[in-house]
Amino acid sequence: MSLLHLAWCYFRSRALLAMSALAIALGVAVLFAVLAVVNGFLAQVESTIRDFSGDAVVAAIPERLAPEAELQDYLDALEAVEGLESQQPRLNYYGLIGRRGARAIDDPRTTDLSGLLLVGLDRLPEGMKRLQADPQLEAVAFGPEEVPPGAILVGKVLAAKAGVGVGDSLMVISFKRGSQGYPVPVQTSFRVEAVFTTGRYDHDIDRAIVRREDLALMIGDGLGFNEIGLRGRPGLAPEQLADRAEAALLAAGLKQKGWPMLVSTWRAQGGNFLRAVENQKGILSAVFFCIVLVAAYQLVATLALTVTEKRRDIGVLGALGAAPGRIVTFFVSLGLVIAAVGSALGLLIGTWLTANLEWVQDRIFGERIFNAETYIFDHVPVAVDWSSVLILLGATLGAALVFSFLPAWLAARLNIVDALRR
Amino acid sequence: MSDSAAAPAVLQALDLHKTYFMGGAELRVLRGASMELRAGEVAALRGASGSGKSTLLHLLGLLDRLDEGEVAFNGRPTRRLSQSARARLRASTIGFVFQQFQLLPELSALENVLVPRRLACGMSWFRRRGLERANARALLGTVGLSDRLGHRPGQLSGGEQQRVAIARALISRPAALLADEPTGSLDRKAGAEVLELLLELAQENHTAVLLTTHDPEIAARCSRVLHLEEGRVRQE
Ligand SMILES: Nc1ncnc2c1ncn2[C@@H]1O[C@H](COP(=O)(O)OP(=O)(O)O)[C@@H](O)[C@H]1O
Ligand SMILES: [Mg+2]
User: Fold this and answer.
1) What is the number of domains present in chain B?
2) Is B161 contained in some domain?
């Protein structure tokens, strides 16, 4: 049926058509790379949130809980939730640490102190890596370890700021509720067990992990937790896990009736930031797809020129029995060949770009445009979402189809005898 | 060929009119031309340059719209046919050979010969591809080009190009072959060879031929000679 072979021959022998394909290729490549980076960023944000919080989080807001209940009651009630893989109680609290060699750790007003989030855990969360003593070596993932008593694990940026390393002792200041209801400063000395990285700058700068029991003791928290992270079996939607957990707590009488949800998903935990990134992804896709559209739009001019150049061929095809519809199909196929070659080339270039992003940044821009402080992650995360690549390809070919139609129609309208005469 | 008067008419033209308008001036090229072409016969259409031979051939081949009159293939009128029905008729019934060869420059000799088959076969092309290729190869062998299958038109001499064009015109075994000064761009020797080949193959395929020429020698090789004068066809 097709004269695809002839279209391919035209394509091969015309530099103009190759240029057209190249324009589409550049558009597709840039869009591919941008999507991969935004997507990688989104995936990384999601996975750090998810690694830390779990799929769903039970928030222990005191007035919504049953007055007499203890942690174990919650754990027992949740244990029965269908599809639950693991649960981890957490106690989050704010603290201060002083720089090493700082004059007065016992005066909380000193400017040498920096704030941090103390995360009290029984076991280390997923997605964290232990920094090696030798800075040349890559960080390695922690095993499923319990947090040892008296130990503190410090984020790598925080460790650098405080000037502490593994084996050092670190004085942490926090506050407990005093007998008159006023906060009273407390301080505890921890041994630095490890320096970790989450891959995310904003976590590495303000997080330290201690044993939940130690923290509860230090700040005098009777309940010993303020949230429970839940992880569901693979394939179970976080929303479903959250709903089941909520129902289980209600059934066990652990949640006060009439209060809003106690259990939220990791997505809700990510909050506006996550949604902002998702929005950004949509906007960037639309903007960069316009580049592809413009690249595809020049097909109108390129093909119109080809129609003029190939008038005689069109006449010959007509004389040999090609109906006008066939001529339209031919030129639309030519447009599609150009777009297909362009897209394929664009995917190759885009894949290369995303694989060599660091190199490209160094060579072309002379500096890292994505630096850790502004970009959160210490490397540029890249993730190719093949379903959106497929949509991109479909949209590119669709645009080529639309833009090829006008020149194709012009070709089909040519009078055969006139065309043969050149 | 002598019994062709009794054969049925493949192609009939009745009272054809065609007028060109050129910036106000009108040029009445055909003014009631009528003729017929019988199965298997070879007819020559003679006439002075500019007398309208090509115009008539284009109308007979359904390449152009006529102002008045009727062209019928195997007794079936074509005037009211749609564009695509006319295209289908061209693909199935009519072969063309042009003075300027009119091969597609990007395609090889073999591919050029296959173009009418691609156009005629539709989806069944993919099933028939091997068979069609073998046929085209054989036909190119018959016209003496078996060692030029992969050559592009630009790599062939004029005589060779016209032989490719003849193979292309005959590949679908059309009932009628319309040849517009088929030797007009060739030197005497090449022209004579091409003409010989064309007549031979047409006879083998039982294809009726109408060729235009202003060369009396060529006309003498044909079974019947028609003259186009003042927009009408006169039998010799
Ligand atoms: N498309 C056209 N527009 C105007 N005049 C034309 C056109 N085609 C042919 N003619 C004129 O019609 C006359 C017949 O042309 P043609 O059929 O090519 O003659 P022949 O083939 O006998 O030499 C010529 O005078 C030519 O200039
Ligand atoms: Mg002529």
Assistant:
1) 1
2) yes
